[in-house]
Amino acid sequence: MAEAIAPRYRLLVLLAAFTGLRFGELASLRRRDVDTENAALMVRRSQAEMQTGALFDKAPKSDAGVRPVAFPAELLPDVKQHLDGFAGPGRDGHVFLGPQGGRLRRSNFRDDWVNARTKADIAGDVHFHDLRHTGNTLAVSGASLRELMTRMGHSTPRAALIYQHVVSGRDREIADQLGSMIRKERGDVDS
Fold first, then answer.
1. DSSP secondary structure string, 78-114?
2. Cα-Cα-Cα-Cα dihedral of 96, 47, 140, 156, to 10°?
3. What is the Cα gyration radius of the chain?
4. For 32-74, what is each residue's pLDDT tens digit?
5. Distance separating alpha carbons of residues 45 and 181, to the nearest angstrom
6. Which positions ≥6 away from 21 have C-beta within 8 Å?
7. Is the pTM of this model over 0.85?
8. Max CA pair span of the chain
9. If pLDDT is split at 50, 70 and 90, which confidence band does 163 have?
10. d(CA 184, CA 87)
11. Using CA atoms, how far apart are residues 121 and 39, in angstroms rounded to an integer?
12. Which residues are designated catalytic?
């Protein structure tokens, strides 16, 4: 999807997939929320849209929603390129803007998403929010429930448990990790 979507939305797709942030959290990010030294985003707000079409930023559902979220350092070149080419000016400039330079709207983004999904030959029932599911499922590997809750901005385990399904091959990784612990305890050199 990142390769198929318009360049201005490439980072949006990558961050959704590797941080698990919601569309509204990504749409409300400002330049000051991006820490390129530590490869992290500070989630402080979430964009919402009124029935009139007016956009506004609101506080997260709970205190857990305000949080730093690290992203893979491998995305830093994409982050810097995006900030240089597509983000709004100044510390309060929005990281993601619509095609005319205004605030990013879900309704305007939808056409770009559908076009990219078609171009990438991805099934029509895949939604942008599925990237949050992907990111959080990837994060489950090796993360504790508490760590996952913090990363996702959940205040209770219930929502985080949705992402606790078995990741393909993960059982083998767990067994191999246990085997490594056994070898280390025995003093085997290949641990």
1. HHHHHHHHTSPSSTTSBSSB-TTSSB--HHHHHHHHH
2. 160
3. 19
4. 999 999 999 999 999 999 989 899 999 987 888 899 999 999 9
5. 42
6. 15, 41, 43, 69, 132, 135
7. no
8. 68
9. low
10. 49
11. 31
12. 22, 129, 132, 154, 163
